[in-house]
Amino acid sequence: MRINFKTSYEHDIRLFPDWWSFFVYATLIVIAVALPWLMDDFFLGEVTNVLIWAIAGLGLMLLTGQTGQASLGHAAFLALGCYSCIIFMEQGWPFLIAFPAAGILTGVVGTIIAIPAIRLHGIYLAIATIALSILADDIIVLMEPITDGVSGKFAPMINIFGIEIERWTTPDRFYWLVLAVTILCTLAYRNLLRSPLGRAFAAVRDSEVSATAMGVHIARTKAAAFGISCAITGLAGALMGFYAGAFNNETFSIVISITLLMMIVIGGLGSIHGAFFGAVVVAFLPQFLSMTKDLIGGSSVAIPGLETGVFGMILILFILFEPMGIYGRWMKIRIWFELFPFARKDMFKRQKSYLKTERLR
Amino acid sequence: MEVVQLLVSGLANGCVYGLIALGFVLIYKATEQVNFAQGDFMMLGAFVCLGLTNAHYMGLPFWIAAPLAIAIMAVLGYLLDFFVLRHLFGQSQTAVVILTIALGFVIRFVAGVIWSHEPQTLESPLAIGDFNIGGVVLGMADIAVIVVTVLLTYFLYQFFQRTKLGLAMQAASQNQMAAYFMGIPVKRVQGMIWGLSGAVAAVAGILFASKGAIDPNAGLLGIKAFAAAVIGGFGSLPGALMGGLIVGVIEPFASRYFPAGYSQIAPYTLLLFVLVFRPHGLFSQVRIKKV
Question: Is A35-347 a CATH 1.10.3470 domain?
């Protein structure tokens, strides 16, 4: 049993609630840094993929989990981040400038798009973002002089102060780069949640009416959430481009958008851990499926749609039986042990509400 | 003459979009939920009918198979609500959105396993050939689509406006708690509407399959139908049909008169414009309540 005794506000909002959790995360980082010496290149590549998906998940989590705006169009921002980073580098910009610039550009575009989008809510926002995701594909083709359209682009070599980083020849360096970006994004996210803006996000998610009453400017907060979310997603998109090596208009399709949203739901909406758990599921599911197929001695013929079908099934089960996702389940188990004899079944009961139409206001 | 031809083929396509959009709107009107799997429902309805009709599978006569397929889809819709969606009662709309998207993936996978991913054609008596009326070529299937869509929209509209059940459905969506107080079995009403929209999806699927080949990815048409429903205004049945017709007519004209590449983005651009300037659609149902 653990007692969390808080004596001041500083105490409440500090980065790690106690020394034990600081120790846990420090160990995790040490292991993560040492990973290239512990694993072969194939698994290292898979872990890199998990981390990239996790960054993208963090981006969407900020918008959907934290601010409560479901977006089905984040693949468009992945694409924007990817294309802008690589086009900047083709202009001769060094990676260290092109990469943040791509993030900032994506964030600015996201904010501009958010200005009409924040008038919409719930389903209408989801629809508008779907349209955006579909349009992105066509716009990439139409802007062929810049984007090379259907034939696609190739990611150049990353060069940071003379150290060359490439996905295939130096997978360990690429992994460290991705790890560094992941840690920075996670820290930024965590700190954002402690700031007034992060609190405003949660207020908007939980009740727009009460948020307005507390002096939160709804439109501005939503636009900020959109912008920051898109910026993080843009960074993930750029890394995805480097990871894939080659990409074209179809790399960032609407399926990626949907997968991203499903991923954070499976992981657990509204938590940083959720983005990582979800990323693990998304990245390892194909491997897991092909391994089970080998185990039960099935033919090696690929069954089209199997991955998405199984993924959909997992998601349905999660929404029905564990709406808080993997992280929610983990929390329940942990709290059960922490409170050992005193945990009760009803502690996590969700409040249900009766629905009223949005068409009559 | 060319314009008329484009208009007619656009109208026929638009009616299919309109039919799928009707399914969206039915569910939205009665439950405030959005079924993102409606396009996949349509595909499944088409494949059920195809499985019953085609000589390769069951080989039943079309006029028996089609009502049977519609009935199967209606039961399936009801069961889906009973076993899955009813457990989400009282949770946010976003949960339902994500759930139905996942459902669409599962349906697509199952249909692919049962009927394979090869495009197949329905052996339908509607696909008997084309008419030529004064230089305008018109397929029998196109005429059937237009007639059925208009009739179906009319009857569903009357159903919602006139019958007791239709009014109960509207009440259940407008305020669940008040509907309970009035003695409406809200959950059962919601199950019925899912069954009804399954039936409408089956009709749309059968007509769509009569117009051409169909494969498990045909459900992606649902996204376009979705755009149609939003352009028309979610929650309005004639609006859904109008939205479908607008999208259907815009497509052939855009691909005829716009440079290549711009044509397929036309419906979505229109969708974004509608969402920005008239967020609740052209046939908006949003009213400010008078106190």
Answer: yes
Structural domain boundaries in chain A:
35-347
Per-residue model confidence as pLDDT tens digits over B37-67:
888 999 999 888 888 887 777 777 888 888 8
Q: Note whether B268 contacts A135, CB cutoff 8 Å.
A: yes
Measured in angstroms, the CA of A244 and the nearest CA of chain B are apart by: 25
Instruction: Name chain B contacts of A281, Cβ cutoff 8 Å.
Output: none
Q: Which domain holds residue B187?
A: 15-131+138-220
Angle, CA of B180, B185 and B187, to the nearest 5°: 105
**In this predicted structure, what is the pLDDT of residue A37?**
86
DSSP letter assigned to residue B287 = B
Chain length of chain A? 361
- Whether B8 is covered by a domain: the verdict is no
Write the single-letter amino acid at B232.
G
Q: Is residue B151 within 8 angstroms of chain A, CB to CB? A: no
Q: Which of A254, A312, A354 sits opposite B176 (nearest CB)?
A: A354
Q: Chain B 174-203, CB below 8 Å of chain A: which residues?
A: 174-177, 180
pLDDT digits 0-9 by tens, A289-332: 878 777 776 665 666 677 788 888 888 888 888 888 888 888 88
| Window 249-268 of B, Cβ < 8 Å to A | 261-262, 264-265, 268
Residue B116 near chain A (CB below 8 Å): no
| C-alpha to C-alpha distance for B9 and B183, rounded to whole angstroms | 47
Q: Say whether pLDDT at A69 is over 90.
A: no
Total number of domains constituting chain B: 1
- Can you state the angle between helices A196-206 and A218-244, rounded to 10 degrees? 100
